[in-house]
Amino acid sequence: MAFTIAAIIAGLVLVGWIGLQVRPRPLPPIADTAGTVETVALPEELPAPVARFYRLIYGEEVPVITSAVYGGRATLRPVAAFPAFPSRFRFTHDAGRGYRHYLEITWAGIPLIKGNEHFLEGKGRLDLGPIGISEGPEVDQAANLGLWAESVWLPALWVTHPRVRWEAVDEVTAILVVPFGEAEERMVMRFDAQSGMLTYLEAMRYREADDPGKILWICEALDWTEVDGTTIPQIGRITWFDQGKPWTTFEVEEIVYNVDVTDYIRQRGP
């Protein structure tokens, strides 16, 4: 009897593990095509590693990005103690103003949890179905930092937005200062000494609505390559310092810029 129960448990564990190895199919392709993208001159007097980075990806002219819709597949831990689940996602940005996240956490390619997250008018709301809804000032702070960190996939915004500025630190580090309502937040930006590409974004961020304090939040920008004609990090990986292992890894497979997201950003679903 004990052997039978152990065999059943082992079988269930094996089936569960196999399901976690199955990548979901991508979401349907983004329906819109890129809008007109104008360019402006790269600002002068940027910190040295920042200027080098922008010249590598854009040259002396940077695009003016007003919106972005991008997506792909990911792995994500809905709860810290859980294994990483295969997922798929689509993020919509009203550049520097707000966003909408849609994601599906899957097993064996089947959606288990559908998440809808919005950051609009300075207020964040995360709805992860059976896991629950999160709102409040801590969520707002976290969502605002998410807005600016995710702009790594539209990095021109960091030099074209009127309330964003850079502060020099050393030859491979700079501080990105971004708005948070009427206040400001700071992110440490680290660049690779050899390639000149951005590799890490770090900030102090709330993780949960009831957190007593902020936690070091580490974002990695990996595999800078051309996706749909634009040089971006194809892989983004996020780790909470106290957990010591990635919470999620995003692989961007498609991206379009400067589409009208006025209505789409307030919707739910893909």
Write a structural description.
This protein has 270 residues and is an alpha+beta fold. The protein has a single domain (2-266), classed as outer membrane lipoprotein receptor (LolB), chain A (Clam), CATH 2.50.20. 17% of the residues lie in helices and 45% in strands. It has helices spanning 2-20, 48-57, 137-149, 157-160; strands spanning 39-41, 61-63, 67-76, 85-94, 98-107, 110-120, 123-127, 133-135, 165-170, 173-180, 183-191, 198-205, 215-227, 230-240, 246-257. The strands form two sheets. Strands 8-7-6-5-4-3-15-14-13-12-11-10-9 form a 13-stranded antiparallel β-sheet. Strands 1-2 form a two-stranded antiparallel ribbon. β6 (110-120) and β7 (123-127) form a beta hairpin. The longest helix has 19 residues, at 2-20. It is globular. The chain starts with a helix and ends in a 13-residue tail after the last strand. The relative contact order is 0.18.
What distinguishing features does this structure have?
270 residues; alpha+beta; outer membrane lipoprotein receptor (LolB), chain A; two-stranded antiparallel ribbon; 4 helices; globular
Short description:
By secondary structure, the chain is an alpha+beta fold.
Widest β-sheet, arrangement of strands: 8-7-6-5-4-3-15-14-13-12-11-10-9
CATH architecture descriptor name = Clam
Spell out the helices and strands N to C.
HEHEEEEEEEHHEEEEEEE
Radius of gyration: 20 Å
**What's the end-to-end separation, in Å?**
48 Å
Give the low-pLDDT segments.
none
| Helix content bin | 10-25%
Number of helices: 4
- CATH uppermost class: Mainly Beta
Shape: globular
Number of structurally distinct domains? 1
* DSSP summary, beta strand count: 15
SS-derived structural category? alpha+beta
CATH topology: outer membrane lipoprotein receptor (LolB), chain A
Roughly what is the average pLDDT, rounded to an integer?
A: 91
Could you describe the largest sheet, including whether it forms a barrel?
A: 13 strands, antiparallel
Strand content: over 45%
